[in-house]
Amino acid sequence: MRKLLVIILILLLVLGALGASTVLAAGPTWSVVSVDTIDCAGSATTFSMELAGVTDPSPYYWRTIVDAGGNRYMDENAGNPVSTDNGPYSWTLYNSSSGGPVTATFPLPNDTPITVQLLLTNGFGGPAVSGAIVTIDKCNGGSVTSITPILPASDACADPLPTNAVIHELPQGAPAFYAADLATATNFSIPAGTWYVTQTSGDFTQLWIACQANRVWVPSNAVAP
Known about the structure:
It is a single chain. By secondary structure, the protein is mainly β. It has two domains: 2-17 and 164-222; 29-149, Immunoglobulin-like (Sandwich). It has one helix at residues 2-15, and strands spanning 29-37, 46-52, 60-68, 71-79, 87-92, 114-122, 128-136, 144-149, 166-170, 174-177, 185-190, 193-201, 204-208, 216-219. The strands form four sheets. Strands 4-3-6-7-8 form a five-stranded antiparallel sheet, with no helix packed on it. It has a four-stranded antiparallel sheet with strand order 9-12-13-14, with no helix packed on it. It is globular. The two termini are 23 Å apart.
């Protein structure tokens, strides 16, 4: 994880960080208080969450996305919270496609990294304004490897992770391009590892790097299915 953080910091410098407001606007928050249980079965991985700052009328929606091994196991729209919903919650992972299509069902695969997006979005399918991305090294006897809070684009995150992004592996790494065009090559490469794929265009695939970095394109033949 330390190596990944260093890589992201280097990419931020190369790609150019976007200016962030020095005064953060007040807004609702949906926070991870703790990860209470980790297991492969449906409804067996649980989180303690806290919702705060939601006022009426509320344009927000809860959304939970679970990815593992290149498959999407959960994409849930859990509804539209209102002011009376502020407070603590127990949150679990299970089969749901109410927010978008999935490609696999629980149980989660053994010995496989898991990424959980716990999102509060502005509108159904809209950008995330709060929440967190939780990574777990495996569901069978695993542990949490990171919890990354999500901030809205209007605050400290210029490009929040899209809710339709799917994790794919770059087994050998790949050269980076500014656009889906061979003439836009950069002077750096994306290292081998797992990355968020946001879209494809022709022979290129776009990767989301971090909220303060520009997205980049890599050859699609470098991305594992």
